[in-house]
Fold this protein.
Amino acid sequence: MGNDFVVPAIVAVTLVTVGIGFYGLRLARTTSDFLVASRAISPTWNAAAIGGEYLSAASFLGIAGLVLKYGVDVLWYPVGFAAGYLALLLFVAAPLRRSGAFTLPDFCELRLGSRRLRILATAFVIFIGWLYLVPQLQGAGLTLATVAGSPYPVGALLVAAVVTANVALGGMRAITFVQAFQYWLKLTALAVPVIFLALQWQADGRPAVTPPDGPTFRAATTVVVEHRATLTLPDGEIREVRPGDELTFAAGDPVPDVSGVAADANDWLLPSAAGDDDRGLFGTYSLILATFLGTMGLPHVLVRFYTNPDGAAARRTTLVVLALVGAFYLLPTLYGVLGRIYTPQLLVSGQTDAVVVLLPGAALGDGTVGRLLAALVSAGAFAAFLSTSSGLLTSVAGVISTDVLGRGSVRGFRLATVIAGAVPTVLALHVSGLDVSQVVGLAFAVAASSFCPLLVLGIWWRGLTDLGAAAGVLVGGGAAIGAVLVTVLGPPLSGWPATLTTQPAAWTVPLAFTVMVAVSMATRRRAPVDVAATMLRLHTPEALRM
Amino acid sequence: MAKQLPDVGSGGAVPPPRRARIVLAEITRQDTRAERTRAELAQQTQVGEALVRGLVRAQLALALRLSLVVAIGLGGLPWLFAIAPSLGRTTIGGVNLPWLLLGVASFPFLIGVGWAYVRLAERNEQDFTDLVQRPEH
């Protein structure tokens, strides 16, 4: 790329992150400071921090890449990522805060009084956390490789090291400041370049996004293939390409059809219609369920709610988060759409996740403005990796220090952070072939099939028992984890088996709810005796507290 | 308006309570019924139990009603596009309707539902607080 602004921008983001971390370190004194920032953070700061933590590599890079590749059908990703906060607001936010628990396992023990359920919840927090951390580190490796030409492990190790050190030394108070800063950085990093991109598009005479003859290359392009694919060239020739193959196209050449990509203008532009593919509709609804209901079950999202002073503040914070996140999600779609015009080579190379970082350079050229904007976008992408990884690491380390190591000391938390950071780093270095957005989607599906029913029924239904909760989490969450393992490790599937395992939520979420309710009804005698007192605590306003 | 009691959650600096003249007769006269109801809530008497059940039911009904709005408003879209493909071809200002609905309009819609929930949920809680703290009439 030869953009000499990119590396300084990434270094600056990293230094500011570490710097704010140390500023927070001076304030962090006790274990309670470390874990939930003493619950004294204002709603605005807290909301920006939640937004900053939530907008991950999948949001910043993945959505634009998916839109470039698949078109309108994947707009459900940003809608669902935002709507997850509405589900959280409606069913979980205020009662969860009032429960006074620190972590998800805490909530299980508080509501159902079962040590064994607590251990099960701990295992799921760690699994979901790691499943979500691996693609963040991968995204970092791929981005640094794309923009700075470094080997893949450098970016992954850099982000892992910075985040582990920052969390271990500063805890969550530091993280709150860091995350809030990173929300605004990410928004700016997408919003400012998009203005220049829109002006450039105007200046170019508003080229059509879906020209009647299919997308064409605007300039002479050499494409290095990254993923195996089958190309159909305009003259009808069918060609298999492998990673490392180089293809050369002249300006004005049509982009070849790539297998598995919506190259046809109508496939890309229009939603999947009835009749031609029921699996498409099933997949869409599965995605909607996973993202709408999965957000509340993500451990790094939940731990944030304990930093609100009371239940009403938790509710208002969630509403502000919904607005902040919604504003952000207007932007990646535009990158995906403009990528259709300016970076069609990514369709051929298979590196669609790189569209956000490559688009400013491709559309605006190698002038100073183009390079500055490319650097800004890369800095935003790094902010995304750093902030989401920090939040995940804080919550995974939190449950490891209290539930696995069994000590609540600051030292224990630091040890737990190192353990929690090391495992996904090793995994990320060994599995570079996973698709970033797909793995993140699977993490949502697991969360929606385990913690979502546990939280919703635990908060609203007196009849939930410890056995019912454990059975629902094991069966629903277990089925989702099975689907994840088959998708990631198993043989390539096609037809319905493929749809049911790559988008499992539409059957695993109802399964989890059904099992949880049925087993709870069968073991009615085990319902905790203090359920009335718990309900009082979860639902009555703080103004009445004695 | 509810009486503001010290908040257990906030760890910030609480100003020291102001010195006040206590007259026993005034204390015994005020808020006895409210105090009794609050004590009932805490001790799980049947009245307190019924009050809390009512609040939980009202809040759950509110959350379910608003989820239904979202389920129909957003969840109906894939189905609608599937059975009426011509809708997908409709353009407004050169942009196809599904792109506008999903890429732009869905976010203000979600925020609007969330805003309505916060207002209505706080009103439910206010009603509950008023009920518990209502002086004898």
